Amino acid sequence: MNARQLEKLGIPRHCVKPAITAVQQLAADRVLSRNEIKERLRQVVESPKLFVGDPVLDALARELLDDATEPPAAEPVTYQRWGSQIDDGAIAQMEMAVQVPGVTGAALMPDAHIGYGLPIGGVLGVENAVIPYAVGVDIACRMKLSVLDIPVEAMTKQFDHFRGSLERGTVFGVGAAHRKPQDHPVLDQDWTVCRIIRESRDRARRQLGTSGSGNHFVEFGVFTLNEPAPEFSLEPGTYVALLSHSGSRGTGAAVCSTYSDIARRMMPRKYEHLGRLAWLDMNSTEGREYWAAMNLM
User: Fold this and answer.
1) Using CA atoms, how far apart are residues 250 and 196, in angstroms rounded to an integer?
2) Residue 73's pLDDT is what?
3) Please, is 88 exposed, middle or buried when counting C-beta atoms within 10 Å of its C-beta (0-12, 13-18, 19+)?
């Protein structure tokens, strides 16, 4: 019997593999006829509990029981799409993302483009769960603008000084690290929450304050403020500013990869097609470990 014939007997698609194994063994035993094997499979589908422990049908029965205990899949939520001319691949990824169980809201930003699982520029709200690949490989990827109390004219007069400060202050390249590791209070936090974090602390210390590769950058420029910003104690004017784009480097990538793999192994079979959108329940040990590791980034 092939997959299509088994599905006609009521075997769910994700249970076809153990069903084929059972059919092959039943056929090899030469006790039941072809029609009797079909009838036996119908009985397993109708009452899988009766076949738990059966030397041939146990695996199929357990798969069917697992499937029966899973809540029915909810209808995908609708999402707001901001902007036009968004890449078709990003839209397809978003259509897939809203199928994740527990999604409560979603949106696609104007700069959306293809990502890993969730598109870059995709926003996804999930109830009591976290999706490692939706957070991303580069955990805490960010842009930061530092406004400096330096005359704008200094950008020209002291060009070599500014350039030198960039060259001394950060490092670019895959695997790049400072020769002399820097220090930061984050390194005094609990890095024993899980194995991957415990093993990555030294690398994180070496790469702290570096830029890495990809589209990360650090650059000086001129920043113009047209209105007062009392929350930053800034008056209207023109300032020298430092703009940086950075993230969690190799440590964050290791956290994402490790816990995404765990999430995929734990994901109900009916959702295997969601791939990198695998999620972790926040009430689970794995979910709490990932959350703690993520917050160190």
Assistant:
1) 11
2) 59
3) exposed
75's CB contacts (< 8 A; 6+ apart) are none
Q: Residue 195 — φ and ψ, nearest 5°?
A: -60, -45
- The whole model's pTM is what? 0.72
Count of positions (residues) in the chain: 297
Name the residue type at position 30: R
CA atoms within 13 A on the CB side of 123: 11
pLDDT in tens, 172-184: 988 888 888 888 9
- CA-to-CA distance for 254 and 251, rounded, in angstroms? 5
* Residue 36 burial class via C-beta count within 10 angstroms: exposed 0-12, middle 13-18, buried 19 and up: exposed
